[in-house]
Sequence to fold (376 residues):
Amino acid sequence: MTRNQEEPRRPVSLLDIAKVFLIIGTTGFGGGMAIIALIQDYCVVRRGWLELDEFSHGVAFGQILGPFAVNASIFVGYRLRGLKGALVAAVSFLTPSVVIVMALTALYLRYQRVPSLQSALSAIGPVVVALIVAAAYQMGRSRIKSMESVLLVLISIVLVALFKLPIIFVLLATAAYALLKVRFSEGGGAHEGR
Amino acid sequence: MKDVKWLSALLLPKLAWTFLKIGIVFFGGGFVVIPVMHRELVQNMHLLTNRQFIDGTAISQLTPGPVAVLATFAGYKASGVVGALVATTAIFLPGSLLMIFLSKSYAILRELGAARKVLNTLIPVVVGLLLASAWSIGRTAIADWYGIAVFLAALIALVRFKLNPALLIIVTAMLGLLFHLK
Fold:
């Protein structure tokens, strides 16, 4: 068992953690940053469970790692009550969504061939594509600036869409390339801003 | 119903394994699971049709949860509530373990610039993957000029006006229902 050496455990009960994250998981429509703002409001501002600084660091890591509302929940839960806290926070946050998806999926699988629902669904199709493109745009906006990054975008499209290379292979190859580059630039001196 | 039947004793372990694999590539923002899941579930395993994948993505966006709850949809389609729970647990497990590890040692990791640099190089590739899957999904989802118009309007609403995706999906579905636009 690892003990947290920097600060004493705050007396926050698992029940409190569960309550807060159930509320966030039920009301946090809008995804992404909207949920981070909610978590911050409940856990940092209203309850003072964490310092803003600490929370921001957790969010920063959660952000690079993927579904970052889940990761932010895990971070807060972990800082408060260790492993159990992390588990309670993540499960509480996800449960409402999972229940909603199961209910909607059951309805969907039963009624997907009803003509009027068909037309509602086919109207949604272009919106889903727009969601994906918007995600790509928001991710790339601040980070795709150099010639190299533009090339990486193009190369990965060609490898995946045209040559149907396994996605995991493309990601691993990029990671290997990036590691080499970090090594190289650290040996060669300071450059490479962002 | 002509859907592929997924009835075997090995189904649940297979589901768990598939979604664990998908869960490992969780970085650069939650949407990276879209290209990975599209490849795996639609193109490789034929668990979902392209159409169902699109509808499942829409459903996942109606919740506060991340787009990865698409795993819940796919798991439910494969084998009901149990399948949904297995798939959901599996997809979130690897990333969650990593996040727990990071939370534990975040003081050290703050200094670790190399990890961030690697992830920064990965971002353009993830963007490329997303665009590739938008293309492949779009070929089914966007059938005509009307579709292109809806796509562009939605993109502007999302990027420029930061409209809530759930709201956008609900409004579009209602319009589609009202006007029977195909």
